[in-house]
C-alpha cells in the first residue's frame, strides 16, 4: 500500500461531487437526530459510539491503523487507535459513526487505514465524506477563511483551520479544494506534499498543540458492564456466555499487546 497522493486526492474531490447529495442527507440526519445534545461535535461523537457500540480506545504503534468496527450481529465493537493524533482520531471516529449508523455486514470486520491510497470503495468514500461534512461544515469553513483575510501566510491559514475544526491537515486541504477556497490545483499539490512539524508550529503560533498530539488514551470498558449490557443472554447456555467472555478478553488482549509492540 502507498501513501495518498495529491493526484488521488483531487480525484476524491470529483467522487465527492457524485455522492454529495446522499451524504449531506446522512450528515444532516445525524446532526438533527443522532448527535447527543449538550455536547460539541467531537464529544458528541464519543458519546454516540459509547452508546451504540462497545467502544475501545487503545494506542497501537501501527501508524497505518486508524481503527476498526466488528459487527457481531446483535452488538458492534468500535476501536480507535489513540496513537494517532487527536485530529486524525476525530476523522476516524466520524468515519466509523457513518458505518455504524448505516450498518455493516454481520460478523464482518471493517478496518480504517490512515492516509493510504486504495481503490475508492464507495461506502468508505461516503464515510470519509460524512466525516468531512460533520467536522467542516461548508458555511462555517467559508466564513472562517473569509474572516482570516490575507494577513496570515497560507500554511498558517491551514493550521488555524485545523485548530478551529479539529480535522487533519490533508482533510482540511481537500475540503478547501472542494469549496474553492483553493482554486489552483498546483497550489493544492504543493501544500499537500509539504511536511511540517505540526506540534512545533502550533506551539509557536498560539494554537492548541494537543489537537495534533497523540492522545494515548486507554479506554477499555469493564467486562462486567459490557457483559451485562450487550453480551449476556439469559436464554443462552452459560457455556455460550462464557465463550463471549473469552472472545472479548482475547480482543482486548490483542489490542493491548499491539500497544506494547
TrEMBL record:
InterPro entries: IrrE_HExxH
Residues of the IrrE N-terminal-like domain: 61-176
Domain of life: Bacteria
Pfam families: Peptidase_M78
Protein's name in the database: Zn-dependent peptidase ImmA (M78 family)
Amino acid at each position: 500500500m502507498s501513501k495518498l497522493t495529491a493526484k488521488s486526492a483531487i480525484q476524491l474531490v470529483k467522487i465527492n461531487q457524485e455522492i454529495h447529495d446522499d451524504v449531506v442527507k446522512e450528515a444532516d440526519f445525524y446532526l438533527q437526530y443522532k448527535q447527543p445534545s449538550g455536547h460539541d461535535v467531537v464529544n458528541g461523537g464519543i458519546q454516540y459510539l459509547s452508546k451504540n457500540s462497545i467502544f475501545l480506545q487503545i494506542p497501537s504503534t501501527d501508524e497505518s491503523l486508524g481503527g476498526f468496527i466488528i459487527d457481531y450481529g446483535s452488538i458492534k465493537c468500535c476501536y480507535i487507535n489513540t496513537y494517532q493524533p487527536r485530529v486524525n482520531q476525530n476523522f476516524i471516529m466520524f468515519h466509523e459513526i457513518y458505518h455504524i449508523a448505516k450498518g455493516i455486514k454481520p460478523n464482518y470486520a471493517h478496518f480504517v487505514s490512515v492516509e493510504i491510497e486504495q481503490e475508492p470503495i464507495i461506502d468508505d468514500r461516503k464515510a470519509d465524506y460524512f466525516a468531512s461534512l460533520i467536522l467542516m461544515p461548508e458555511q462555517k469553513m467559508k466564513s472562517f477563511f473569509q474572516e482570516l483575510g490575507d494577513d496570515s501566510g497560507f500554511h498558517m491559514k491551514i493550521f488555524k483551520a485545523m485548530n478551529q475544526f479539529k480535522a487533519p491537515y490533508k482533510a482540511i486541504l481537500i475540503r478547501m479544494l472542494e469549496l474553492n477556497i483553493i482554486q489552483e490545483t498546483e497550489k493544492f499539490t504543493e501544500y499537500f506534499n509539504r511536511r511540517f512539524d505540526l506540534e512545533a508550529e502550533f506551539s509557536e503560533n498560539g494554537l492548541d498543540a494537543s489537537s495534533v498530539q497523540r492522545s494515548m488514551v486507554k479506554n477499555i470498558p469493564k467486562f462486567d458492564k459490557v457483559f451485562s449490557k450487550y453480551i449476556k443472554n439469559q436464554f443462552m447456555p452459560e457455556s455460550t456466555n462464557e465463550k463471549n467472555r473469552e472472545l472479548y478478553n482475547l480482543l482486548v488482549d490483542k489490542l493491548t499487546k499491539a500497544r506494547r509492540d
